[in-house]
Design brief:
Two copies of one chain form a homodimer. By secondary structure, chain A is of the alpha+beta class. Chain A has one domain (2-141): Winged helix-like DNA-binding domain superfamily/Winged helix DNA-binding domain (Arc Repressor Mutant, subunit A, Orthogonal Bundle). Chain A is 36% helix and 25% strand. Chain A has five helices and six strands; from the N terminus they run ααβααβββββα. The first copy, chain A, has helices at 2-12, 19-30, 37-43, 49-62, 135-141, and strands spanning 35-36, 65-68, 76-79, 93-98, 104-111, 122-133. In chain A, the strands form two sheets. In chain A, strands 1-3-2 form a three-stranded antiparallel sheet. In chain A, β4 and β5 form a beta hairpin. In chain A, α1 (2-12) packs across α2 (19-30). The longest helix of chain A has 14 residues, at 49-62. The radius of gyration of chain A is 16 Å and the shape is globular. The A-B interface holds A 67, 69-71, 73-75, 94, 96, 99, 107, 109-110, 112-113, 115-135, 138-139 and B 67, 69-71, 73-75, 94, 96, 99, 107, 109-110, 112-113, 115-135, 138-139. Chain A binds a DNA duplex (30 and 30 nucleotides) through residues 16-21, 37-38, 47-51, 53-55, 58, 73-75.
DNA sequence: TGTTATTTGCAACTTTGTTGCAAAAGGCGT
DNA sequence: ACGCCTTTTGCAACAAAGTTGCAAATAACA
């Protein structure tokens, strides 16, 4: 699946197929949780920090990835599910952060409930971070 | 209201009444939106950066303030509504960030809807950031 | 007012975010 | 396969934010 898919993805967004970009998307695809820039730097340590930074910025602008808010202030990123465009992120699923393993995952199955704002406020988008204990850590506890 | 209330608040949490702490709480009380450390540094520029940092950390641990997620990665803080303790933050209201004025406010009137997680996940708490245009900026547009 | 534990300011350092510029590499027509 | 042109990368450099240790200053309380 991977290599071809990655090339297609990049071409869809009119991006050149460079090693770095392919590797970064590869990391996102094989990880099941959101990735921060420091995470990327560890995994792909043969690329310059700035290159990874710019790669993330590019992907973010194109709508390939979206930001995942984190309670530590560290920004994490995850692949968009496919409905995002350069101009609007239609990716309002719940993000779940495990307080044990500290991984943050996208829970696509659960979408963000509709929010009714007070009069005078206009709704653009929403980002919901739920904290708790994930399935894997839960299982470990009950060994 | 202010001075006495601030002293009471600090005493409730067994904290010494220092100038810095009183001033920081004062800023939180008079602001209607969440405050970041850089915000504090500008307003209270006669205190050392580190002192403000440690004051925020202390307040956070005691449950006097809570973190407000921000889409820029910059951490903001706001006063807790009174139900938070050292061990649990029961402060699940919606946070609203205006994309015009960039202020983030707590909307106490709107609470975070109940979220049903997939099997195996345990819910601890949730943080919901809604982005849009606030009442004030909306009004400005229609001058 | 004096003693003690806490808090503050300073110095120093780490990590993350950001920009400019020249060298390297991708895409495309031939 | 080659060369040209545009985009991307790596390096250097700097800005901003987070974090720790330690000695001096200060709050609490007798």
């Amino acid at each position: 699946m991977s290599a071809d898919n990655i090339n297609m993805l990049l071409k869809t967004y009119n991006l050149r197929l460079t090693e770095c970009r392919k590797d970064v998307i590869g990391v996102f695809m094989e990880q099941h949780h959101a990735v921060s820039q420091p995470d990327l730097e560890l995994r792909l340590n043969h690329y310059d920090r700035v290159t990874l930074y710019r790669t993330l910025t590019t992907f973010l602008n194109k709508g390939i990835i979206h930001k995942v808010l984190d309670d530590t202030g560290l920004t994490k990123y995850a692949l968009c599910s496919g409905h995002c465009t350069e101009h609007h992120h239609a990716d309002e699923h719940v993000h779940f952060k495990c307080i044990k393993c500290e991984n943050t995952i996208c829970i696509d199955a659960v979408s963000v409930p509709a929010i009714t704002l007070p009069d005078g406020f206009t709704y653009l988008d929403a980002n919901l971070l739920v904290r708790g204990i994930c399935k894997i850590c839960q299982a470990k506890n009950n060994h």
